[in-house]
Amino acid sequence: MEQLNGQRPSAHDQQHRARGLIIAAAVLVVALLGGAGLLWSLVAHASGSAAPSDDSDTPTLLDADAPAEPELPANDERAAELAYDPDRQTDWSYQSNGQKVVYLTFDDGPSENTEKVLDILDQYGINATFFVTGNDPDYRGSIRDAYERGNTIGMHTMTHDYKTVYASEDAYFSDLDQVAQVVKDEIGYVPYLVRFPGGSSNTVSANYSPGLMTTLSEDVPARGYQYYDWNVSSGDAAGNNVAVDTIVNSSCVEGYTNIMLLCHDSNTKATTAEALPRIIQYYLDNGYTFAPIDRSSFVVHHKVGN
Ligand SMILES: [Zn+2]
Fold first, then answer.
1. What is the DSSP letter of 13?
2. Domain 90-290, CATH 3.20.20.370 — does that match?
3. 226 C-beta neighbours (distance < 10 Å), count
4. Pairing between β-strand 232-233 and β-strand 226-227 as defined by DSSP bridges
């Protein structure tokens, strides 16, 4: 199931993986030599937007113009793209971009299954997006791991408790601020990406605060975040460890060019990880690529129901 059947990773993926190898090599060298300045110069080299086609400008041990101890230097470009910035204007794409792309999304993690999912994504050389909660401190290291392996991190809420999260607008943003801090502690910044528990179309919130989703669906973007619903669901939320065949059948559909696929990452979703290779292979066989969400990605918004 790990065979790619002749499918080659995209040029982007190859570039991405090559960059990862260079960064890993840089970290190893620095671990041996203990030079923080060298790390910066090597990583800045690896992260340059115009990747050199040869090694002619590889920095040497004598490179002296290095800034001291940058925080998370390997991810500076992605941080600039994905960081929450209330003053930034983005031209969001609410329509398909015309190219066959699957955005795999995993809600509710991190969990005991996160690393399994990450390993499968790595086997295929693809990336996904994880909308995380603050519910399980034991697995928070997987947030950082997911990010460092090229995946996008978004915020799902701190508690995922509908009664708490949807008590009021203030309660929602208070909860969001908490999970923002959790994510910042792991990846160094607050991302702009949000997914509402139950999606923006949820009506459960009406039990606690009538009209709240109408308010939040306007105020969350107005504050500089973007929220992402989905257009295909894996069906893995129907119960604990839904049958693999059921998840595959729900996930593998025709008729969409851009697919925002809802999956879950929790201790009771081992079968989602088991289904993942078949889902990935189906879309590869049908000419799709996979991408983590960024500001240029397809944005799905549901019809708000409260
Ligand atoms: Zn959820």
1. H
2. yes
3. 19
4. unpaired
What is the CA(18)–ligand 1 centre distance, in A? 33
CA 228 to ligand 1 centroid distance, Å: 12
297 CA from centroid of ligand 1 (Å): 21
pLDDT band at 22 (very low <50, low <70, confident <90, very high): low
| Residue 260 dihedral angles phi and psi, to the nearest 5° | -105, 100
What the block records as the tokens of 206 is: 């009406």
Is the pTM of the predicted complex or chain greater than 0.90? no
Q: How far is the CA of 261 from the centre of ligand 1 (A)?
A: 13
Which residue in the block uniquely carries the two structure tokens 């995922």? 160
Q: If you measure from the C-alpha of residue 106 to the centroid of ligand 1, how many angstroms do you get, rounded to a whole number?
A: 9
Q: How many angstroms separate the alpha carbon of residue 159 from the centre of ligand 1? A: 10
Which phi-psi region, left, alpha or beta, contains residue 91 (left: φ > 0; alpha: ψ -120 to 50)? beta
- Centre of ligand 1 to C-alpha 89, Å, is 28
pLDDT tens for 225-245 read 999 999 999 999 999 999 999
Peptide bond into 70 cis (omega under 30): no
Domain definitions of the chain by residue range: 11-70, 90-290
